[in-house]
Amino acid sequence: MSADATFRGYRRGDGSVGTRNHLLVLSTTGLTGAAARRIGAILPGARVIAPPYGSGVVGDDGALRDRLMLAFARHPNVGAVLLLSGKPPEAEAYRDALAASGKPVELLVLDDHGQDSLRLTDVGVRAGARLLRTLSAQERTPASLADLRVAVECGRSDPSSGLAANPLVGRLCDRVVEAGGAAIAGETLEWFGAEHLLERRAADAAVGSAIREAVARRTRHAARSGIDLIGNNPGPTNIAGGLSTLEEKSLGAILKTGSSPIRGVLAHGAAPHGKGLWLMDQPFYAPESVSGLVASGANVLLFTTGPGNSYTSLLAPTVKLSANVETCGRLTEQIDFDASAILSGRATLAEMTALLTDCVLRTASGMLTFGEILSEGEEVLSRLGPSL
Amino acid sequence: MSTGFNAIRLADGDTVAHALTPLEAGTVAGMDGPDGPVSVVIREPIPIYHKFATVDLDAGTQVLKGGEVIGRTTAAVRAGCHVHTHNLASDRALSADEGGA
Fold first, then answer.
1. Is residue B36 very low, low, confident or very high in pLDDT (cuts 50, 70, 90)?
2. Which of A239, A245, A345 is opposite residue B71, by nearest beta carbon?
3. Which end of chain A is more exposed for a tag (fewer CB within 10 A), N or C?
4. How large is the ipTM?
């Protein structure tokens, strides 16, 4: 075990610690998406989020959009925000909502530049360049495991996930939680078949009910949509890998949550009220799941896979793990942590937990994941209903 | 876990184990047990990480892995044979069909 379980991060005004110091180029309207992408292509340090949804997203759907967009802007890994918009009142409201974060937020409105997307690009590149220079002078300061907010995800699982990779991630979550940090797991439908094990760890009866109800709502939604959950899950990749039933897959999946008591069930994209282990009720598909977990303020993401899965977060460094020896030998520019020694018996779970903790701390301090190097990451919105 | 095992069983009461390497018919699968290593003779090819039965199972038997029920056999399965979607179904699906939850 590392004698010094610390990392170096960017301490933010709200007490959170960033493991990265991104310039976020956030486009809040379709009109400004192209300019945002051009700015991102020119400025090497920029991270672009430009969802194609805006006006006409109403009610709870609109509230979710606002929550996710502001959460991306407020994220501990974001050092500054370049906000692009073609809708001034909303843009000003976002800018004002972000003022308390203490980080530089510059708003550029298309209407101020004669509806000229090229002029907006020019102004945006210059503003972004100045922000990047400021960000590059900021320094990391000491931080500890308690400052980690770890999100966990699995994608393209096979039996090696449940046999080794997920238990390993679970041990890492336990370490972070014991040290005073937070861990968050989502993908509600992946609890189906294993709810009883999660309910046993619920901090109180209300949390137990919330877990059961979250699964029931999703399974009802599937039934109403004519989806045979059990007939479609495990999917073809899972089956080819050796997973036979939904229960088997879910029992393996929940192992990544470790053994800590479950403090609560969060709404998709919501932040936890404090340290400990939290579940998030959300879609299971990686793009939506990852963005919801990241919106909660997760500053690092652990993502297990069996045969391989290249999807990552844009804002949070995503450590890809597999315990499948063939995968680790083949995907040498995708898998960040090879956990296959657990199954070959060359290392114990305890030894690998120490190695993974070290890897996570070094990643938190700036060591890049393959997903970051290869720009695999995205953040996406989730929708609840039809637009106007 | 010691080195040298080519299979793994999660809990002592489990009726399936996973191959840690592709296993050919006739191979002896070795895994840890509470009273020392346990062996099962493999009767048909088992792909890496797939399951095989550690004991003979009748049709309609609940299958245990890690102490939890992962499904029910839909056919009789002999020890050392491949356990997968062709002879194992979700116990939840089958329970639902029988009018359960």
1. confident
2. A245
3. C
4. 0.93
